[in-house]
Amino acid sequence: MSYLENIGKNAKKAFENLKTVRHSKIKKVLENYNKSLLNNKLNIIKENGKDVKSVKRKHLIDRLILNEKRIDAIRYSINEIAKFKNPIGQILENWKGKNKLNIKKISTPIGVIGVIYESRPNVTADVAALCLKSGNCSILRGGSEAMNSNKLLANLFREVLQKNKIDKNCVQFIDNKDRKIVDDLLSKMSKYVDVIVPRGGKGL
Fold this sequence. Notes:
The protein has helices at 3-18, 23-39, 41-54, 61-64, 68-83, 122-133, 147-163, 180-187, and strands spanning 91-96, 102-106, 112-116, 137-141, 171-173, 195-198. The protein has 204 residues and is of the alpha/beta class.
């Protein structure tokens, strides 16, 4: 089994397990992640420094940098996501059909979401949190320039999931820099990935 297929298989399994997790526990995970970001602030800045130091395209530096202020902004975002009302099981539409049956459109999780994005490390935290909040699993592929920052942010999330007895593979980060991985994610993973959200740009 290939590197990417293994990630896909783990994501599918994690999604099945996630279906039985209470929303209150997901909220707790996000609150714990917020605390983990605070406790690991120096480590995050250290790993981010490696990315900034090695970046070749200097115009990416501003979007790449994580300082205390930006980490606090990430924590604020995670806190806001945690406070959102449970989006699952909400009645979106309600109407009566021609056969007089009451019909409802109810929100449900999508499944496994693959996200391809630029060299903005905050996206790793935000997307992982939004996907989990909505009952979905995520496969993240961030810009290669932010590899160290993204990997740590994703691993901290996975650690919190595991501590709360939730499958850590609800969040997975692709740490392979090979650009072919992106092509394969887009074209060969339909068996495992339900939707791909690409964010184009030079940071991919």
